[in-house]
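Fill in residues.
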């Protein structure tokens, strides 16, 4: 039987749509949770090779402990303790190591690394110890690292640096660092455009102050209808060199991040909080547009979207359903960052490639 143009066209789109592997997208998002970036090590040994090996071993331990704190609850850890992993046991837990930057001498290794852990072996080990694993992603949060009055320019730059290099983008509630031009006192009317770009419904101003050997950061969250004082975090500066200052500022960032993550995990653990499921019409005129819609959904699966399903397909569009966390306007902002609009119509939600 001779194929008609309609049959050929439909076959083309069926092939393109079948290439959309939502399971793979969801798995990729889950795997990103198990990647720990910004692991900073500084190790000394008898020679260069031994120093590097010591650095990698330290990075495995530090990365694993950060991951455990990321995907478990503080209450669980307090009750059951941090799992102890030593030596060759990391061979089953670590999938790969990416070197972000490094310096070395004949006896010293300094590096910033990303450690990628195996989700299956990690979760099995944690559950064996009786720890509850929470690896569901929440909506992004915008963080504005601000420096208070009297902070030196070099210190202000370092404050921003510990945030941008801290690896917080892979957290359960991914942290997105505001551009340097977001300054001043906490104000939603100023922060709103930056938050929209980050697909965040609010912004946390983290204002640094240094007095003597103590560094503090005041945390204030602002949103369209809220202003919330999140308190203050503090750290001692154990020395007068740049490394000591960096360690203290990194501790402040870690403490602030832990607070944000604890809020999200509390909501996720009890099954409450914003989010829902959407059935949307994905409208396109050619395969290129479908590829862009597909790419936007796959990327959003790294932060807010999960359980993507293709329910139906036609010549000019498809029906796609997916779950999301956060608020619908955050989801729309996240997709808009990828060039795709999410709009409400008389027939329900519609996904389209944004017009230029």
């Amino acid at each position: 039987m001779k194929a008609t143009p309609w049959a050929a066209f439909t076959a083309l789109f069926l092939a393109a749509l079948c290439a959309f592997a939502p399971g793979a997208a969801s798995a990729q998002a889950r795997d990103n949770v198990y990647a720990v970036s910004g692991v900073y090590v500084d190790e000394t040994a008898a020679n260069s090779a031994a120093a590097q090996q010591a650095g990698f071993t330290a990075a495995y331990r530090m990365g694993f402990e950060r991951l455990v704190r990321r995907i478990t609850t503080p209450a669980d850890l307090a009750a059951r303790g941090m799992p102890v992993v030593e030596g060759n046991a990391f061979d089953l837990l670590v999938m790969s190591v990416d070197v972000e930057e490094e310096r070395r001498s004949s006896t010293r290794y300094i590096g910033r690394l990303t450690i990628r852990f195996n989700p299956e072996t990690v979760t099995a080990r944690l559950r064996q110890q009786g720890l509850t694993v929470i690896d569901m992603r929440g909506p992004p949060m915008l963080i504005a690292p601000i420096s208070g009055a009297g902070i030196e320019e070099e210190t202000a730059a370092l404050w921003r640096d510990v945030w941008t290099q801290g690896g917080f983008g892979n957290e359960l509630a991914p942290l997105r660092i505001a551009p340097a031009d977001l300054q001043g006192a906490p104000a939603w009317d100023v922060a709103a455009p930056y938050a929209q770009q980050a697909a965040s419904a609010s912004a946390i101003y983290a204002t640094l102050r240094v007095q003597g050997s103590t560094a503090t950061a005041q945390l204030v969250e602002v949103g369209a209808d809220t202003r919330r004082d999140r308190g203050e975090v503090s750290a001692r500066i154990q020395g007068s060199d740049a490394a000591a200052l960096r360690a203290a500022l990194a501790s402040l960032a870690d403490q602030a991040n832990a607070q944000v993550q604890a809020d999200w995990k509390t909501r996720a653990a009890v099954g409450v909080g914003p989010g829902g499921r959407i059935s949307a019409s994905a409208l396109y005129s050619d395969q290129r547009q479908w590829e862009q819609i597909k790419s936007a959904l796959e990327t959003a699966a790294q932060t807010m979207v999960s359980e993507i399903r293709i329910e139906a397909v036609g010549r000019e569009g498809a029906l796609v359903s997916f779950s999301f966390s956060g608020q619908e306007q955050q989801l729309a902002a996240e997709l808009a960052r990828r060039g795709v609009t999410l709009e409400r119509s008389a027939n329900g939600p519609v996904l389209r490639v944004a017009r230029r």
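The chain has three domains: 13-26+274-353, 35-134, 140-273.
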